[in-house]
Amino acid sequence: MVKPTRLDYCQYLLSTPLNYTLTHFADHCEQFSHDQINRYLAGDNLRPRYVWQNVKPHLEQTPEGYVVFDDTVIDKRYAKKIALAKKQYSGNARGTINGIGIVTCVYVNPVLDRFWLMDYRIYALDSDGKTKLDHVQDMLSVFVNARKIAFSTVLMDTWYATKKVMLHIESLGKCYYCPMKSNRHVDDSNATRPYQRIDSLSWTATEQQSGKRIKIRGFPKHHKVKVFRVASTHRTDYVVTNDLSQSDASVAQTACAWRWKIEQFHREAKQLTGLEKCQCRLARIVRNHVACAFLVWGRLMRKAQETGQTLYEVKYGMFAEYLRQELKTPSIKMDFA
What we know:
Blueprint: H1 6-15, H2 22-27, H3 34-43, H4 48-55, E1 66-75, E2 86-90, E3 95-109, E4 114-122, H5 125-128, H6 132-146, E5 153-155, H7 163-171, E6 175-180, E7 185-187, E8 196-197, H8 205-210, E9 212-216, E10 225-231, E11 236-241, H9 249-257, H10 260-272, H11 283-307, H12 311-317, H13 320-328
Parallel strand pairs: 1-5, 5-6
Antiparallel strand pairs: 1-3, 2-3, 3-4, 6-11, 7-8, 7-9, 9-10, 10-11
Helix pairs in contact: 1-11, 3-11, 4-11, 6-7, 10-11, 11-12
């Protein structure tokens, strides 16, 4: 008896246009029943390192590379009994929902304007005792010490701009750029004045261009970082870096702009791979589904890079021939009463 494999399941996620359920898979595959597919997903043990093994041969590294961290939430607000789902804040929903948190990391080559998913961790504090900050530090240590990834800078959101993470990055000999919340207290007076909110600092014309050195409250006594005030039409960001030699606000702004590659990844993975669509309840099935969805995103990205298309063009282009045939010879002809 032929049994389904991870390749079969990934091919299904890659090929199906909309419905990603196991029932839909079984209904359209003569080889496998629903129970067989369910048993495969419950029995496999896909780990995040499998994603790395698949991306490693295709990763184009550069010493100027960026490593970007962020997290996303798989929306499970209408599924109360799915494992790993818990109440947490979702930026997409702009509020707290029931969902599965995933900390992700992409590698950006700014020279080629390309990026790859390198690693991820499912946020499951109750089972492994690790916070999102712990996951980021673990992944960074693996990149530097075990995988020897070539990169210079870590980019991250305000959530990860903590003393623990920032000092860990410095201990690895890497730079970081990250925006800070406007209510963080800092000192730009070399301890001659009290700490004040970062958004209440005064800026000279020179400091607007070249930044200013500050100490963040709670950091070691003589620890300084550089902060840049980056203003746009709708908001003002305060970007900090441990690169004290940096003296150009536009460079800091450009570096932070690369962070949006990870937002692009989250959007594409949710819309094109069925990342959020698994209805199974077991934790192992959920983990395997996430891994397979990320593997599918990686395959779509490679095809997009080969053909010069977007991932959406690659995915939906698969159904172009079907539409041509339906328009030429409709299986259901339109009529009017």
